[in-house]
Structure formats: C-alpha cells, structure tokens
Amino acid sequence: MTTLENPKDLADLIRRLRTVRADSTARWGRMSAHQMICHCADALRMATGELTVSEATGPLQRTLIKWSALYLPLRWPPGFPTRPEIDQHRGRGTQPTAFASDVDDVAARLAFVATHHVTCKAHPIFGPLSQRAWRRWAYLHTDHHLRQFGA
Q1: DSSP readout, 15-60?
Q2: How far apart are alpha carbons 20 and 32 in whole angstroms?
Q3: Counting runs of H as helices and runs of E as strands, what totals does the chain give?
Q4: Is residue 2 part of a domain?
Q5: DSSP code, position 93
Q6: Does residue 37 lie in a domain region?
Q7: Are 110 and 136 in contact (CB under 8 A)?
Q8: Burial class for 134, CB neighbours closer than 10 Å (0-12, 13-18, 19+)
Q9: Could you tell me which of 53, 62, 81, 104 has the fewest CB atoms within 10 Å of its CB?
Q10: Residue 127: which H helix or E strand, with range?
Q11: What is the pLDDT of residue 55?
C-alpha cells in the first residue's frame, strides 16, 4: 500500500511532482497546473492544522467511503468536489505566485507530513484519521492530482 510513511513512495511522489510544468495540460478538471500545485499545498496545510476547512461529512462518508477511498486498490475518480476553502475556482485557495517555489513548498509539506505528527484531528469528509491514515490520504490526494496532469 503506497503511503508517505514509505520513504520510497515519498521520493517517487516528489519526483513526479517535479515533472509537472506550469503549462502542463489537465486530463480532467478546471484547474491549471499551477492552481493544482497550490490546491495540494492547501490540502496539506489542512492536514497539519494550519488551515481550517469546513466539514462535509456524515455516517456514510466517515465509514464506507472513507474505508473505500483509503484502503481499496482503486484510483480516485475525477470530479470529486473539494471544500470551498481550498477550491481554486472559488478564489479562496492560495493563489499561485512563483511556480518553482510553489512546487518546492508542496514537496516540503509532503516531507513534513511524512515525518511529523499531523495535528488536524478530523478530515472534513472522512472524519477522524489516524497518523497512518493521514499519510495514506496525503499520498492518495497528491497522486490523484499528479495523475490529473499526467505526472
């Protein structure tokens, strides 16, 4: 199972992250490559408790969907809605600045989540997550968006 807990998985994810270019074309969705990079940084800010994100959860999301999303060997499908606070199209997510430094920021945040205690107690959709689950989620979320741009 791929996760940020595995140094090889983390290194591969960061390698793929660094293959994305500002002009990379999305295979799905409305975000530009640079907006996706900022969205991933915001999602990691959420995981570390730096950014508060509104809840959108219920019993189904906290159980069956959570387990399926985190532990079944299936790729996440395109089109899953995000929370407004990290939605690049609602203008509430971190706005892109310098592409290379924004990529470096995501790489550093991935490394931090891989090696430090995640302080956010609950995911806005999946509810409470263990440290191991947060690291699995961070891997899967980033992987999903890298695949969005062919990386």
Answers
A1: HHHTT--TTPPPSSSS--HHHHHHHHHHHHHHHTTSS-------HH
A2: 11
A3: 6, 2
A4: no
A5: S
A6: yes
A7: no
A8: buried
A9: 81
A10: strand 127-128
A11: 74
Q: Residue 63 has what pLDDT?
A: 64
Q: Are 75 and 69 in contact (CB under 8 A)?
A: no
Query: What is the largest distance, in Å, between two alpha-carbon atoms of the chain?
Result: 40
In three-state secondary structure terms, 122 is strand
- Span 19-29, mean pLDDT? 96
The boundaries of the domain holding residue 11 are 7-148
Tokens of 138: 């961070």
Asked whether residue 112 carries a pLDDT value surpassing 90, the answer given is: yes
Q: How far is CA 39 from CA 64, 67, 103, 104, 106, in A?
A: 25, 23, 11, 14, 9
Tally of domains in the chain: 1
In this structure, what is the dihedral angle of CA atoms 47, 48, 53, 55, given to the nearest 10 degrees?
50
